[in-house]
Amino acid sequence: MSNSADRITAARHLIRVEDGAYSSRLFGARRQAGVRTRTLGVLRWRRTLDSTLAPIVKRPWAKVDVEIRTALRLGLFEMVLLGVPRPVATDGAVHLIRSLGRSSAAGLVNAVLRRAYERWPDAEGAKNLGIRYSHPGWLVTKWTKEFGATVAESVLSANQSEAPLWVWFLDSEARERLAERGVALQEHPWCPDAWSAPDNARVLVREIENGSAYAQDPSSQLVANLAGSLVEPECRVVDLCAAPGGKAARLARSLRPSSMVVLDLYPKRVRLAQNLLARVGVGACIAAADAVRPPLRSGSMDLTLLDAPCSGTGTLRRHPEIRWRLSQEDLKRTANSQKRLLESGLDLLAVNGVLVYATCSIEPEENEGLLEGIPAQYEIVDLVDRIESTTPMVATDKGGVRLFPSEDGDGFTIHALRRRK
Ligand SMILES: C[S@@+](CC[C@H](N)C(=O)[O-])C[C@H]1O[C@@H](n2cnc3c(N)ncnc32)[C@H](O)[C@@H]1O
Known about the structure:
Blueprint: H1 3-18, H2 33-44, H3 46-53, H4 66-80, H5 86-99, H6 106-124, H7 129-132, H8 137-147, H9 149-158, E1 167-169, H10 174-180, E2 186-187, E3 195-196, H11 201-209, E4 213-215, H12 218-229, E5 236-239, H13 246-255, E6 259-264, H14 267-280, E7 285-288, E8 301-307, H15 322-325, H16 328-347, E9 349-359, E10 378-380, E11 394-395, E12 401-403, E13 412-419
Parallel strand pairs: 5-6, 5-8, 6-7, 8-9
Antiparallel strand pairs: 1-4, 2-3, 9-13, 10-13, 11-12, 12-13
Helix pairs in contact: 1-2, 1-4, 1-5, 2-4, 3-4, 3-6, 4-5, 4-6, 5-6, 8-9, 12-13, 13-14
Bound molecules: S-adenosylmethionine.
């Protein structure tokens, strides 16, 4: 695709996201790197871009038509963050606004972008971290209070980069095949068996498309590896919130359980897990069910994996629009649902059985906060010593671990509970 076509597609995606769409659902099977970089980049940097653009436009920014806001954001993003020469990016934005049916705004777009370029260094060096790293103020304040200024700034900064592609291989010969073709694979620094191809990510995309590799963030892979290490092989396992099935597949492959139940609320998503588990050659009972009322006997499981639906604040670099939609109220609502899932997951544990509770959220209220006052028949399993010590994690006050988003992985929080004898 040409730059111009990429820009128009990215603008259409951005307008759909403003209407409530999720960016991750907009990209088709084709790689479309230029569209992805522009769409996700503008969503990531929205506040910083707006802080430069809004004062130049005479009308209140929220009342400026979405097509004009989008063309301005894209134009400024291209010149200051993609390194597109200023005249090329400006012409591109002017052409874009015409393609979006708003030719009358071409002069405005041209004039605003000229001035915005001059003002950009103010935004880049802003003292306000929310403006410099393009996050809502309440999240900056919350993370600074909960994790300290240094960690908060490292999280903000990590959320502004693209997430690299990491895979694990379903086909045991794939790595050798790639090596024979001269593809240099790199193993992840702390997640065994996670691989990237820093010089040639496209080759991994093809392996994913042909079914020999599965794309999964290393922190997510770590959850499955850890869960498998807490129980004996040949045990009874349930994954309560399993789709699209990455952790279930990874877990089943290493653990070889005697029985495995795989559930998810949504039939369409269940099919994703079904396909993946079939490809890995795992026999499992897979069904659509509400994990709050799972169709399983109380006390019948040795391992319950609960990778709960969450706010996703550990994955903001992948899903940048989440930060603009989330509120503190949402966190409370999500925590209430998670509590119900946790109670039902605990009820499934046999004596000595373990529940692994994980989220791709770094928020305490969605994680250790839920373990306050758990019934006495469950004990906390300390996880820090069970994870490779080079893993960049911090211990929570409930024996769990938190990985903050970094260039090596998404943010995740993991806890484990065992049913006492
Ligand atoms: C974080 S994702 C799971 C990712 C998955 N474990 C993996 O590694 O591929 C959470 C999942 O929970 C599912 N879910 C949400 N509410 C649920 C419920 N009440 N019962 C079962 N599944 C639910 C969602 O459909 C979603 O697929």
